[in-house]
Amino acid sequence: MRLFVGIPLTAAVIEELSAISMRLQSQADGLRWSAPESWHITLQFLGNTQQYECIVSRLRELRLPALPIQLEGLGFFDRAGVFFAGVNLTPELEVLQQRVTSATGLCGFIPETRPYHPHITLARSKAKGGRGLRELKSKIHRDPRFSGFVADGFVLYESVPGPGGSRYEIRDRFTLGS
Questions:
Q1: Residues 6+ away with beta carbon under 8 Å from 137
Q2: Distance between CA 53 and CA 4 in Å, rounded?
Q3: CA 21 from centroid of its chain's CA atoms
Q4: Which fold does the domain 2-175 belong to in CATH?
Q5: How far from each other are the two terminal CA atoms of the chain, in whole angstroms?
Q6: pLDDT tens track for 18-60
């Protein structure tokens, strides 16, 4: 199983991101646009593993409050060829991410060394060089305003590869709050 832990988005945020994606994408842009049903905020990528039972058991032990989520604009990871919607890294989100990585660490997973940069991947460049991303940047004149939401849970997803790219299936849900 190829697993990761993430926060699902609300319908309102998905609608806002869908409107932006539809406005910006074109047939010849050289980008692979993510499907709205795949949008999420990754807390930790776990990769291929047989540790499912351990992961679920450890994540069930987490007791944290629901937390506010606020998207904060559009951006690019140029080297990775990614176009994304940024997510404000609040102290509450940082605590959740750290607690998730600590919990999975008890199952043998090693946290990333890079700083946590929460985001929602909207598109990826199909080829190196990023011509499509450069053209996309020229279409963005100001950052949109996004609705915030309260995350009352997080999810363990399985990434299932397919001919049109990976699809994400929910394997388990975990509640935040009382």
A1: 76
A2: 14
A3: 16
A4: Cyclic Phosphodiesterase; Chain: A, (3.90.1140)
A5: 30
A6: 999 999 988 788 888 999 999 999 999 999 999 999 999 999 9
Domain boundaries, the chain: 2-175
User: What one-character DSSP code corresponds to residue 14?
Assistant: H
How many whole angstroms separate alpha carbon 106 and alpha carbon 101? 9
Q: φ, ψ for residue 43 (rounded to 5)?
A: -100, -40
The predicted pLDDT at position 130 comes to 63
Please report the DSSP string for 107-128 in residue order: TTPPPPSSPP--EEEEEEESST
Contacts of residues 13-19 at CB distance under 8 Å and 24 or more positions apart, as own/partner, are 13/71, 13/146, 13/147, 13/149, 14/39, 16/144, 16/146, 16/147, 17/85, 17/120, 17/122
DSSP helix/strand/coil, 73: strand
pLDDT tens-place string over residues 72-129: 989 999 888 899 999 999 999 999 999 999 999 999 998 888 999 999 999 988 766 5
Q: Dihedral through CA 93, CA 99, CA 101, CA 104, nearest 10? A: -140
Catalytic residues: 40, 119
Tens digits of residue pLDDT in 126-170: 766 567 788 888 888 787 889 899 999 999 999 998 877 788 999
Q: Is the pTM of this model over 0.90?
A: yes
